[in-house]
Structure formats: C-alpha cells, structure tokens
Amino acid sequence: MAQADYCSTHQPDFSGKNMDGTTLHQMEELEAYTQRWIAKNQNRVSLREVITIPVVVHILWNTPADNFTDLEIEAQIDGLTADFRKRNENVSIIPPVFQPFAADVEIEFCLATVFEGTETNGIVRKETPFTGIGSLEHSDGRKRICYDDLGGSDAWDPDNYINIWVGQLNGPLGKATFPSMADSKFEDGVFIDPSAFGFFCSSTSNYFLGRTLTHEMGHFFNLHHIWGEDGCVTGDLVDDTPMQDTDYRSQCPSYPQVSCGSEDMFMNYMDYTNDNCMAMFTKGQKMRMLAALDTFPRESLKTSGGCALGNTKDITLTPDDILLFPNPASDCVHIDLDLDNDLPIRMAIFDTAGREIYANQIFVKDLRTFDISNISNGVYFIYFETNNQVASKKLIIDK
Ligand SMILES: [Zn+2]
Predict the structure, then answer these.
(1) 216 is catalytic
(2) Ligand 1 centre distance from Cα of residue 359 (Å)
(3) Which of 246, 273, 303 is the last residue of a domain?
(4) What pTM was computed for the model?
C-alpha cells in the first residue's frame, strides 16, 4: 500500500501554483460563498433537522479481494453515518481539551432504495478487466471508472445520489471531488481503493474502520486537510481547528503533539491518522459542510427521493429483521435491526444451556458493533425484546 499517497483529492491551493486560472477562480468563489453562508447562519445551525442523503456504491472488482458482500457495504455506510453523527465507538479518544469542539454533523447516509422508480439496494457490482481502473483515463479524457462503456460504472444522477466508486486507485487510498470542481458532473463523487474500504473488526491494515470514506466525504462537502498543506500559513479555513504544520500519516500519535505554537488535533477525520485513532469533525467543519449542502451542486441531495421507497423497516420485530455479520464471528459482530422503533430494547445473549451471559438495554440507533472477545467459542442465541415482541437469532462464535 502506498501510504505516502494516502489521499489524492485535489486540495485547493489559493496561491494558484498548482491550479489553472479558471479553477482558482471557481475555488475563490466557492470560498467566498462558504464564508458568507457561515457568517449568516452562525446561530441557526441547531434549529435544523437531520439530513439523510442517498448513496450508491459502485464496486468495480478486478480480483475477488476487491469485491465486497452486501452486508460489508451496509456496515461501511453505517460506519460513515456513525462518524458523521458522533456515534463512533472511539469518541472517548478525543482529548478533553478538544471535546467541546466535536460535532454531531447531523448528516446521515443511506444506501439508495429507489432508482428510476424501481426498488434497489443501492449497490452496483461489476467485474472489470482493468487493473488500477480508478487511475485510468480514456483518450478522450473521461475517467474509466465512471462509465459503463469504458469498463467502469455509470454515475447515478448526481443531483440525487452521492456516487461512491470502489476500485483500484493504483496508489492512493481515496480521492473525492470538491463541490463544483469535478471535470464532469458524471465524475462527481468519492473514490475508494478496495484496500481501505469497509468496516471490519480487525485487520493488519491501518485503515480497517472505513474512515477513508469518512475523510473523502469531508472533501466532497468542501473540507480541507486539517494541516492546510502550506505549513502554518493558511490552515484549513476552519476557525475551531488549530493551525497544524503537517499530517500524521500512518500514525497513532500520543497526545499532545504541538506544531505552529498550538496542540494539534490529529484525531480529526481530515488528518491522515490511522483509522482507529481518528474520532471527530469539529463544529466549524460542520458549518462548512452545511454550507456546501446549501448550494449548487450539492443542494438537491437534501430533497432526493433516493431513500424514500422500498424501506422495509416497520414496527414489527421478527427474526428476519435481525442482521448479524459476520456469522460465525471471531472478534466482533455487526448487529443491525430492521426496526422502526425508538423505544428501549432489551438485548440478551444465551448459551445453548439457556444461561444468560449478557444483557443490556439499547436503542436501535446505537446498535452497530458488538465486541465478543470475552465470549468463548460456541453457539449462542441473541434475543431482542421490545414493545412486548421478542425475536432471536443464532450466533456462532469461532475464534
Ligand atoms: Zn484528503
């Protein structure tokens, strides 16, 4: 893995060194709009409602290792939402001095449930003959990964869906387009290398919690790298992130680290820190993202009907509503309940002798990853009880 090239998103460079005049002008206009929006809306943010944005995941696999199951993709998108909603399990690693700045961005993501009037699972999966497809351009300048006829996968209407392409990038772990900055609207979106895609319990990789997607989604909504890429000069144009000299790529630094005369917020998703050492966006970053969602071309994503149909969630709890993966599981298990319910739920785990070995009260929104490292190998039953309904599913633990 080419860790020196973590993210190849074209970062705005207001010196104009690495940009043509037109692009620089576009970036300056976007920045002027962003700053005006933030000034105007500073006190209104808490009044808004949570926004849910439909995504489509295009898997372009060249080798079987690049392919992902539907459940793996669902867990990745759930993880993305958890990061944006400040429901990530590792929120406790945020040092006390930075905790007041950590934001619930109040944006959620759903795998699209409807496409052109038809029910869908929001996943397109294709085998491609091209290695490194995410780095290839056709002779006419089009990016191969974004087009069916070039061996990739056509974007779904970018006005209504965020397109996430997962395919070999030949170096970087991810990249994304800033608002209005894609070469074509059909190439607007997020690109993730298979080596950094997916939310897994453990891995030998530094990037196993799907946070490359969180980082790139930050760029998609106009966030810059937290170190600003020009030493201690411009920074990331966000008020509540300290000025930082450089990135902490492939590291899990101990707190504190100091540069530019202040403590670095290296646990921010817009650094390059290892996945399990990232934990927050700030309120200032949230404002930039909301500004991006309030203007062309991202504005229409807020009113997309892409998740309106085919939603199977209801208030009845049945065994089919319990999704466990992986199963058998070795160190953690992802739990998802297809249940439209904000009542307390009793979750319990029994062994085959009927002994209760775990019990807790939870809510659907908090269910995600359950640590089973303290439970020995064997067959178990996970029970959920809510609103006088009970359902259970078998779970096999095999370490
Ligand atoms: Zn980046």
Answers:
(1) yes
(2) 41
(3) 303
(4) 0.91
